[in-house]
Amino acid sequence: MANLIYRVVSACGALGYGYPKESLDEALKGRVDAIVSDAGSMDAGPFYLGTGTEYFEREAVKLDYRHMVEAGARLGVPVILGSCGMAGGDRNLDYMLAVAKEVFADLGIADAKVAVISAELDPEIVVSELKAGALRATGTGPELDETALRESTIVGQMGIHPLITALESGAQYIFAGRSCDVALFASDMVRRGIDAGLAYHVGHVLECGALACDPGSPSDCLVAEIYDDGSALFVAPNPARRCTSYSIAAHSLYEESHPQLQFYPEGILAMEKTTFFAPDSRSAGIRGSRFVRSAKPWPWSIKLEGSRRLGARKVSLLHIDPADLAKVPADVLVYGRNGVQTRPVGPGQRELGIIIETTAKTEEAAVMLGSLLTHYLIHYGYAGRKATAGNIAYPLSPNLVSFRREDGSFGAIVPSGTRDPVFFANYAGIKQAVIGLIEAEFPAALKDAGYRIIDADEMAPAILVRTTGRDPAELAARHAAEVARITALVTPKSGSLIGLDAPDAYEWTLYHLLQNEDVIKTVMFPIAYFDATGADWVKTGDARPRYFDIGETGYTGNLDDRTLSLIQEVPAPGVRAGEHRLLDMAVVIRSKDAGINRLTFDIIFTSGENYEIALNSNVFTPKNMALVLGLPLERIVGTFFVDSCNAIKVSVDRPNISASLDERDVFGAQQQSVIENLSVPVHRRALAVASSF
To answer: CA within 20 to 30 Å of 602's CA: 17, 327, 593, 651, which one?
Structure first.
């Protein structure tokens, strides 16, 4: 019988999402070796790195961290955060440290050893690498520019070694800047001698909290147990969720452009031979994942992210009569027509704009309620949800615009939209459930502010106008001219909002690999140690990460992400027996950014039979997917089969860099509708293959 050798708790998908205290209490029963949470991401756009600000509400971040510290202090185990303050720059890190000092003071934490790891990099170093031609692209764009780099805040995604060094020093509370999400979990496991392949795969499953469960949500806890037979078991502490071999295998695809290969600073996680299993109805496990120390650029490569300010931004939201929709120029973003995707809705399709608007006596109250409604709405998990990466698409980063009304009250709006037919069918219940969650967890937010959720579609269209510029007068004039171009053709209805000052616009300037080992090992990721008592933190020393090789060499499997598991066109399918709607064949149909320059689609089928039908249909070949998505064939990274969970993955170069000025879906979470609407031909040959299962 296998023996438990390590047990780690993932608090939630990102600090600030919130999670039930009861789930954490249940997770802490029995052995606990570490409590970990990712604290951020680049998914929400470059604004947070460029400004050093946080995406989530401060009180939500503080409450989530307080629960973790209470548990860590009681149990004496490491408490690890990475990508602190959302983007992981030094200002983001300082934000999180200020929150942590309040938590330490509130809880009376004394004589605690703290490690703080910076992830920022001097832009001049990056410019030198650019001049030497040494920065390696990770896909299409962004185009590198020396001036833009010098104006940027730049971070690198740290791997496991800075975290391991901090743990080996005896630090109990670790605050890391920008980090590979997986490294936060894998670091302590590798330090303790657990196989790297298992450690990295466990980390990938845990980094989104309970999103790997059924039903999934990043606003809940997940536990991983590691055994001495080389296996790991995932357990959901919340009895309303369960882990299945299917849900764990499906989540192993999430946010990655390839289903079986993931690339990290230290090497490559290869999951081609991974086995997924379920010992009971509520837990599931993995074994057989491999971690490979391959040829350059792995190791050592650090992914760099850079952000700079483009200028101030003005926004107008114009509600119009449906009879006027045809008069609006085709290039204008209109919810009900092309608010979620540039391609207008087709016959039989629907697009729904969801515009959250709040009103309060203070700006803080209006923003707080708007933010809570937004965060709960995008990630609310409901029965039958197929687009599990997010329910709605945001065109702005940040997604909320606050303003003051003529009567002196404060307001906030969040424009968003969806084309998901499954969401439409559940929309009323989702809104009711979201309000119930806020009433239970943040009752003051609803007492201090009012709200309305405005539905915009072809029967009630809403136009979003966005203008950016560095000169205030010139910006105001250009925005007024853009609004005037529209209002010369249509008349805005009551409730329209014109000329709002939105948060500044930022752009991604860098998303490339740094391969200079000297810079990586002697300059990046400095560690500072502190002795912390309450809010009084005394610096006790500095350190450099200790680097060593991990992973196996001599791996003979395929490590080419353009050919491994690639779907090939099959011979003429033979006799056609009918067709199925893809919506009826799949349990998950989702899209999601895989970095700032790629978009990935996951279709997870209800059965092996439906999976084989799809594979033999030629619908999901790269050539056909280019036609379906309206993209040049060269922008299709690949279409891949995944036997472990009866899934197909389609990865493409993003049509634009995430959060660009023309963005409609910052997270890329609502681009799947054209795939959802597919019908898949059924051929008798595929049925014959499926019958052998």
So the answer is: 17
CA distances from 237 to 200, 210, 295 (A): 22, 9, 40
Q: Are 238 and 191 found together in one domain?
A: yes
Say if 663 falls within a structural domain.
yes
Residue 294 clears pLDDT 90, i.e. is over it: no
C-alpha distances (whole Å) from 646 to each of 253, 308, 402 are 12, 42, 45
Give residue for tokens 């503080």. 62
Are residue 534 and residue 603 in the same domain, yes or no? no
Of 264, 106, 275, 90, the closest CA to residue 190 belongs to 264
- 539 and 635 both lie in a single domain: no
The answer to whether 122 and 141 are in contact (CB under 8 A) is no
**What are the tens digits of pLDDT across the range 176-196?**
999 999 999 999 999 999 999
Res 261 pLDDT > 70? yes
What are the Cα distances from residue 59, in Å, to 64, 372, 402? 9, 11, 19
CB 236 within 8 A of CB 190: no
| Closest alpha carbon to 150 in 124, 118, 169 | 124
Average pLDDT over residues 574-589: 90
pLDDT tens-place string over residues 397-448? 999 999 999 999 999 999 999 999 999 999 999 999 999 989 988 899 999 9
Whether 244 is in a domain gets the answer: yes
pLDDT (tens digit per residue) in 190-213: 999 999 999 999 999 999 999 999
Say yes or no: 536 and 598 in one domain: no
Burial class (CB in 10 A: 0-12, 13-18, 19+), 150: middle
Q: Identify the DSSP state of 350.
A: -
Residue range of the domain that includes 480? 310-504
List the one residue out of 16, 40, 46, 13 whose CA is nearest residue 397.
46
Which range in 109-118, 376-385, 674-683 is most confidently predicted, on average pLDDT?
A: 109-118
Q: Is position 47 within any domain?
A: yes
Query: H/E/C letters for each residue in 501-556?
Result: EEEEEEEEEEEEEECCHHHHHHCCCCEEEEEEECCEEEEEEEECCCCCCCCECCCC
Please tell me the distance from the alpha carbon of residue 315 to that of residue 466, in angstroms, as a whole number. Answer: 5
How far apart CA 454 and CA 597 sit, in angstroms, is: 31
Residues 499 and 531 in one domain: no
Q: Residue 690: is its pLDDT beyond 80?
A: no
Q: What is the pTM of this model?
A: 0.94
The Cα–Cα gap between 110 and 73 comes to 10
pLDDT of residue 246: 87
Same domain (yes/no): 592, 474: no
CA distance 624 to 637: 13
CA 583 to chain centre: 24
Residues 496 and 531 grouped into a single domain: no
Cis, bond preceding 299 (omega within 30 deg of 0): yes
Q: Is residue 111 part of a domain?
A: yes
